[in-house]
Automatic annotation (TrEMBL):
The keyword Heme does not apply. It is found in: Nucleus. GO terms for cellular component: nucleus. This is Uncharacterized protein. The keyword Nucleotide-binding does not apply. GO terms for molecular function: DNA-binding transcription factor activity; sequence-specific DNA binding. Pfam families: Myb_DNA-binding. It comes from Dendrobium chrysotoxum. Gene3D superfamilies: Homeodomain-like.
Amino acid sequence: MMGDQEEANSVDKRINNNEESEVVRKGPWTMEEDLILINYIAIHGEGVWNNLARSAGLKRTGKSCRLRWLNYLRPDVRRGNITPEEQLLIMDLHSRWGNRWSKIARQLPGRTDNEIKNYWRTRIQKKVKDGESVDCSSQIVNDEGSSSHTGGLEEVMAQPSYPIYSNIANPHEAYAPAYSESINPSETYLSGEDFWAVQF
DNA sequence: AAAGGCACCAACCGCGGTCGG
DNA sequence: TCCGACCGCGGTTGGTGCCTT
């Protein structure tokens, strides 16, 4: 999706020419940046995103790194093709919890809050607006007090059969399965071709 | 074939919460 | 107890590709 012209505009906070300190890249991520982030997390693990960004030599904010990792690079992330079952679940959970996207996302293995949010806004919300049979928007409940007494689906979905993020605690392990087919497991670094060949 | 509009999605921004010093 | 840094979440924006006219 992202074009190739980002090099031209992505460095938009150039405070001075001291390239070591004050340049923050914005906009679409390049393959090189992805690889740097992936390899760094494979070795050091995720978390402490500001430090990570600095230590990895990425001219990105910690926030940006975190977002990129969680929404796109994480090995267990699934993108595209929301199934009818997932759609139903999204609608149901949204009717219970409202716009608690991260909470909803935790009930959908491999889905991210950003993806669900986008999906909702572009597809489901449109249907709701058009007055179709999706009737969840009218029954949003106050979430904060609801988690302990909504019961039903929430409890079901809280079962261990939804191991969201559970393997992330050890990023080495989290990483291995997704790439083990084409990459020597003993090798921590990935080449660009390795990564993109596996991903797409 | 070209232009305009629309849909989708990646990424940024702002805010609130949490934690450590 | 206060303050600053960091993290996570939800809302929003901008770019790209597809579809329609």
